[in-house]
Structure formats: C-alpha cells, structure tokens
Amino acid sequence: MKLKKYFLLPACLLLISLGLSAQTALQLKHIDSLMATASSRGVFNGTLLVAKRGKIIYHKAWGFANASKNQMLTTAMLFDIGSISKEFNGTSIMLLKEQGKIKLDDPVSKCLTDLPDWAAKVKLKHLLNYTSGLPNFDAQSSETDNQLLDSLKNLKTLKFEPGSAYIYAHANVYLQKRIIEKASGLPYADFIYKYIFRPCGMKQSIMDADVNRPDVAKAFDNDFNATPFIQLTTGFPRLSSADLYKFITQLEAIKIIGKDSFDQLSDNFPGGESSLGTTNFKDGKLQWHRHQGSNSNYEALIYTDHVQEITIVMETNNQNFKVDAIKGAILAILQDQPFNSPKKSVYLDIREKMLKNMEQGLAFYRHIKATGRDQYDFGFEAGDLISSGKYLQRRNRVDDAIRLYAMATPLCTRNADISYTYELTAECYLKKGDKVQAKAWYEKALVADMGNKNAKGMIATLE
C-alpha cells in the first residue's frame, strides 16, 4: 500500500503539469484567434509579445512591413514607439541623479545657461512630469533640434507657474536630453547605448535609426498609403518588441535605477502622465504599469500586471488605437474569461474626413452610427469625438473642435470626462485669444470636477 501511495504522488503532479500545459495551449490558441480576427478586420498590423511569470509565451508578427504589401513583418523588425521613448530620457535623468551629477530640484538654468529667465523657475522635476509651463511650439513636431532651441530662447513667458498645471509638451523631453548631455559629457545616443541598451542586452535597438532601413517597419494608413515620418528632432530609439520587453523588465526589476528613483519617475500631476505613462502602487509595490505611444502612424503599448505576473508588448506600423482593446482581450484570455475581438475605430475613420470637410465628415459619422455598428466600435463614442476635436484643434480648426466637444459632452458618463471637454473648450478659446471665455470654461471644468487641478492652475494663471 505504501508503494502505491508513493507512485500516486508523481502521477498526480504529472497530471497537474499536463493540465496547466493544456490550459496554456488553449489560451495561446485563443490569442491566435483574437489576433487573426484583429488582423483580418484591419485593426492590428504589427508584433505582439506576451510573457507570463517572467517567460515569453507568445511572440508573433501579423501583417505587412510596408504600404506596398511586398514584405511581411517579422518579430525582429524595429518600430518607432512614440512617447514611450520618454521612459529612456526619464531613466537617464535618474541615473545622473544617482551618480550625484544633478538634483531634481536643480533649476534648468543651472545646467543650461543660455536660456531666458524662465529657466531659473523651471526645475528638473517639472520637466519629468510635464508641469514646467513650457508650451508646444509646433503641434506637428516638425521642428529640428535647432529650431526648437531657438523657440525656447525666444520664449518670454511660461503658460503657467511651474508645478501648478500640466501640458504634455515635447520641449520638456528636448531639455531633458540636453541636460543629460551637459551633465554626462556624452551625446544623448551614446549615453543610452552605454547605460541602458548594453546593460539590458538590447542588441537590436538603434537610436535614431533611419525609418528607410530594411529592418525598420514602414508606417501606413488604413488605405495603405505610406505615412511620411515627420519627427525631425533627434534622440529617439527604434526597438523590436523583444528589446522593449527587456528594457521594461529590467527597469521594473530595479536593475537600471533604484527603487526611490523609479517611484519618483512614476510621480504624475493629477490627470496627467508621468515619465512612465501611468502606474499604480499598493503598499509601495508596483501593481501595474501602462504606457502607450504613437507617432506618424506608429503605435506601441507596454502593459505589466504584477499581480497576475503578465507583461504585454505591442508595436504596430498602422495605428488604429486598438492596442488597449487587444490588451484587454488578452488579459481576459489569460484569466480564462470571455473576450471580444476589437472593431474598427470611429475616430480614425472620421478625423481626416472632418479635417477635409467638416459637414461631410459629420455626415459620414452619422451614417456609420446608424448603419455600421457591426463594423465600428461605438463603445466610447464621446472619446472618439473628443479625440477628433483634439485632432482638429492641433491643426488650428478651433471652432470645429469646440463643436465636437459640445457634441461629446452629453455622451460623457463621468464628471471627469465632462470636465475634460470643458477644459479643452477653454484651451480653444485661449488659442483664439479670448481669455474671458477661456476662464469661464475653465471654471465650468472645475465645477464639473473639483479634482481638475489643471483647470484650477489655469484659472489662477488667467487671474
């Protein structure tokens, strides 16, 4: 009887192991089905990496490497990752802080002495969480390093008192890179290679890789028109999904910077992003980390769930704003829950039409709302209208943007979203030079959501 008992134990363990393997195999089959549907619907063209408990369980490329469709994507190809790139300059600032070469309370003027008086008011920590008060000089991000530097030298006043509000302005990133160069004595790209790429084993990554290289995926729109790459400032990594996974894994394992530095880098102004996108902590421990970036029809997403021990990395050269929907479906699959395959983006299909002709764009929007719900995702219709408004606002179509924000407001279900539409409307009036209307709309935003510190800061500035 004792022999039978001891023989039963390994057999049970074997069955448990086989059961887990069968479960994982089924999950991977569901992920394949999800991605096949997303690819066939035209909402994902890129690479996907999924890791569980520190091991990569899924890594696959879907779709084409260029608009001509004469080359298929591979998992080794490099992508632009948009604003996720700011994790690298943020991490570099923290490395220099740990080396004792800079302090987060240092004013920008201490490192860069050729800037106007405002540089004495802006501290390095304000650059990291985008509360410096620096404006966006060119919404298209089409200026060169020298042009951006000239704009900063000619800037007379900040948009608000540093630390009182939030603007996601790429001038913050530019200044971080120049400070890194000044404090380290190295070109920014060389600093990244020395202190991040090489220590993390990121052998495929290239700083400022020419997007015309054969190993770089070429961006295109949903009509398979090649998208011109308009980023002219330097200091941006092009990464494979495997290398991006290596960086995130090492960063969160506190192997690049210390825990205090990581926590400081995660600090965000209420309602705004930190240098790490969005993070959540419980009892001092990281629970999850999400960061999405986009640029010239490239899009990337990183998501780590430390409770479930899951990491998801997506890179695409055909932006459809569906990476979060795909991420949600993958998380559901890995928890053996029902999942939905994403539909087409309303925003992507209406924004250009509205830019070309507002009335025709609105007519198309009303048409697909009435007849196209089986193809289009109207799950957050207010968000699609807000995003379209922001798209027009960045292109100086402020009156049309105001119109879209007014359409979105009744569709919002949260006070924070209503407050945001009012805040964006205020920005439009500010852009028109109407400070009275701008202040009135900021006040409406604050009434709708008393936690809107950005609106509060702008009201104080206007007063």
Verbal overview:
The chain has helices spanning 2-40, 86-98, 108-111, 124-128, 145-154, 170-184, 188-197, 241-252, 259-265, 323-334, 346-356, 358-371, 381-394, 398-408, 415-431, 435-448, 453-462, and strands at 46-52, 55-62, 79-80, 206-207, 237-239, 278-282, 285-295, 298-305, 310-316, 344-345, 376-377. The longest helix is centred in the N-terminal third of the chain and has 39 residues, at 2-40. 47% of the residues lie in helices and 12% in strands. The radius of gyration is 24 Å and the shape is globular. Helix 1 packs antiparallel against helix 10 (323-334), helix 11 (346-356) runs antiparallel to helix 12 (358-371) and helix 16 (435-448) packs antiparallel against helix 17 (453-462). The strands form three sheets. It has a six-stranded antiparallel β-sheet, with helices on both faces. Strands 3-5-4 form a three-stranded antiparallel β-sheet. The chain has two domains: 80-334, DD-peptidase/beta-lactamase superfamily (Beta-lactamase, 3-Layer(aba) Sandwich), CATH 3.40.710.10; 344-462, Alpha Horseshoe (Serine Threonine Protein Phosphatase 5, Tetratricopeptide repeat), CATH 1.25.40. By secondary structure, it is an alpha+beta fold.
Characterize this entry briefly.
This protein is an alpha+beta fold and 463 residues long. The chain is 47% helix and 12% strand.
CATH class of the largest domain: Alpha Beta
- Assign a percent range to the helix content: 40-55%
Number of helices: 17
Total domain count: 2
In CATH terms, the superfamily of the largest domain is DD-peptidase/beta-lactamase superfamily
Global mean pLDDT: 93
- Give the low-confidence spans: 1-19
Can you summarize the main beta sheet? Answer: 6 strands, antiparallel
Strand content: 5-15%
Distance between the termini: 87 Å
Helical/strand content category: alpha+beta
Radius of gyration: 24 Å
Q: Could you spell the SSE succession in H and E letters? A: HEEEHHHHHHEEHHEEEEHEHHEHHHHH
CATH architecture of the largest domain: 3-Layer(aba) Sandwich
- CATH fold name of the largest domain: Beta-lactamase
DSSP E strands, number: 11
Report strand order across the widest sheet.
2-1-9-8-7-6
